[in-house]
């Protein structure tokens, strides 16, 4: 759990110290006072990245040369201190218990945090990239080594795409020649097979969980099913990893001419999708606003369960999610939150409008 945080020049917050209790803490106040910034800071200290911005310099207060945040966490009963400082010239310092790290990404893996926000509807309605990111994040909750596998796959994919682009541009001798392409392709196949194995195990684990949460949120009036869409593997037919490698190799071979023409790798885990369907149709295309929001919330609750099963109980962050829900769904979400028995931070304009009584409240002016 998060015990306390100190923020200096983070977005619109000039200087702030907060002590945070266990159970449900509500952070209330009018729009623009920094409620979401507190959730963002907690998420960064736990996960090592922001859910609002890719460039961490965006967090620096507009009139300040640098920003700083510090958090005290309790992990399995042991106190841990994380600190992060960044200035506008991108000079960055990140520390865990006084030991300097290469980047805040080192925070990831031991203190999970799960964010719920209105924009989560894009998990269902958005591009496959949104759902792949969700899958890969909780893959790392399941097994720490998955983080390294995903990083290596992305690096090899980028190198292979670079070779294909150079070849497409007419270079008669792309760096490394054909031998390099063969090496990169073999590495991509091996890493891709590992990712598929882990993703399919994840889909098997979370499909029933998501369906059950969705049914609860829909008050039993609707059901969804989950699946995995890929041009190489199937979530219905079990495949040995060597068979997956062979199938992937054959797929890449069949796409060789198109890849050389387009300068990009056209098959692999980076092209797949996690699907959510109602009555045989993908919610992405036919789902109503309420259906898509319920499915997105169910996916986030599944993230909490995966972290709780394979790692530790996560911090659950809710950024004004109740305003987007009808009365039935508001009550259902509140009931599930209480059942989780994890530390919860809720940002909302008015604590009085929430469908539950919090354990603690922080009022911001």
Mind sketching the topology for me?
Layout lengths: L1 E9 L2 E7 L4 E5 L6 H13 L18 E10 L2 E10 L4 E5 L2 E3 L11 E4 L5 H4 L2 H15 L2 H24 L8 H41 L7 E5 L11 H14 L1 H7 L10 E6 L2 E2 H4 L2 H22 L4 E5 L7 H14 L3 E5 L11 E4 L2
Parallel strand pairs: 3-13, 3-14, 8-12, 12-13
Antiparallel strand pairs: 1-2, 1-4, 4-5, 5-6, 6-7, 9-10, 10-11
Helix pairs in contact: 3-4, 3-9, 4-5, 4-7, 5-6, 5-9, 9-10
What does this structure look like?
- The chain has 365 residues and is of the alpha/beta class.
- It has a domain at 1-109 and 346-365: 3-Layer(aba) Sandwich (Rossmann fold).
- Helices cover 43% and strands 22% of the residues.
- It contains ten helices and 14 strands.
- The chain has helices spanning 35-47, 122-125, 128-142, 145-168, 177-217, 241-254, 256-262, 283-286, 289-310, 327-340; strands spanning 2-10, 13-19, 24-28, 66-75, 78-87, 92-96, 99-101, 113-116, 225-229, 273-278, 281-282, 315-319, 344-348, 360-363.
- The strands form three sheets. The protein has a six-stranded antiparallel beta sheet, covered by helices on one side. A five-stranded parallel beta sheet has the order 8-12-13-3-14, sandwiched between helices.
- α4 crosses α7 (256-262) and α9 packs parallel to α10.
- It is globular, with a radius of gyration of 22 Å.
- It starts with a strand and ends with a strand.
- The mean pLDDT is 91.
Task: Write out key terms for the chains shown.
5-stranded parallel β-sheet, 365 residues, 43% helix, alpha/beta, Rossmann fold
